[in-house]
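Hi team,

As requested, here is the filled-out complex form for the pantoate run. I kept the field names the same as last time so the parser does not choke. Let me know if anything looks off before we queue the next batch.

— J.
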Amino acid sequence: MEIIYSVAELRMRLKQEQSVGFVPTMGNLHAGHIELTRQVRERVSCVVLSIFVNRLQFGPNEDFDKYPRTFLDDCDRCREAGVDIVFAPDEKEMYPVPQDYLVEPPEIQHILDGAVRPGHFRGVATVVLKLFNMVQPHVALFGKKDYQQCRVLSNMVRQFNLPVEMILAETVRAADGLALSSRNGYLTAAERSEAPQLFAALNRVKSALLAGESDLAAIERRTVNELSSRGWRPDYISIRRQSDLLAPQHGDRDLVVLAAARLGTTRLIDNLEVSL
Ligand code: PAF
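And here is what came back:
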């Protein structure tokens, strides 16, 4: 496995490859990231995983400084998983001058997580477009745990005709249902045992929808109250349609329940698709 820090070196190295599969990450790798590399391994001659904690997608009061940086362990995991190249640009390589050309996603960037984290999806879309230009992958993989991110980026790829196939992979969960996330490491032991309740709440919403309950606002309110009574501070529990994350219209059958809630100082997100 090679570790490459510069765009120039990466481009030289990738010239010899027939096909490149790409997993962009911010490091602190877990089984979810490794699963993405596994899914693309058979399809390409070279698997590239990038590690870059992207300041542009963090708000001023968010966890950019304390975001876990575990580069050496991450490289070990990549080596074991058969990743060919870890691309690890530093901030000067990624942003040699202030990034004032930005990808401005449409309205979807302002709803749900975007309403709580203004500018987040602009930062994500901008860095992913840059990474795509640096790596020029044939296939790129993202986890559905970041459902809104998947929608924003798939739309960007379509609207800018980027020559990359997007694969959106199922969320990898711990045995108790908690979606794997780098931020789970912030949880205390007591919070960690409570954390699977977020997925349990999503499952209750799914059951209610499948049972034919049709007052979506009432289901959302009830679920917010259930979590709040257990000590969570939900940002939203929202039933949307999968295609554009807008409120379902009569007859929409492919839905997704999205949740973001704080437990102590940790903010967790999760979602569950429901097809009626
Ligand atoms: O999902 C992430 O880890 C990040 O948002 C991404 C896609 C690597 C962009 O920084």
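Two things worth flagging: Residues 120-135 form the longest helix (16 residues). The pocket of pantoate is lined by residues 24-26, 54, 57, 124, 127-128, 146, 149 (CB under 6 Å).

Thanks,
J.
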